[in-house]
User: Fold this.
Amino acid sequence: MGRKSAKSHDSKTPRRYWTIRIVFRRRLRTTNGLERLNEEIRRRERVIRIFPNRESVYRLVGAVLIEIDEKWMSGRKYLDMAEYWRWRKMKEQEARSVYQEASEMKRVG
Assistant:
């Protein structure tokens, strides 16, 4: 059995995933953010131990989510969306130019 090359596509992975630049793929393929969130909720839950009602659980999780959101808004960004939108705009422009060339070739041919 040979090793898979780095460019080979997994049949279970959506095709759209492979069109995204590798900078973004590295961030999207992991669940580190979700794991960190669960870890933080568990850490705080251990302090409380027993919740008096369901609403207190919702308040705790809501507080953790708000705190993480504030960190993401003010600190270093996990995914720089400005770079992504620039890349996407460039890809759309390339696709338009290819489409225009193809339509011109149909008219001429």
Q: What stands out?
A: The radius of gyration is 22 Å.
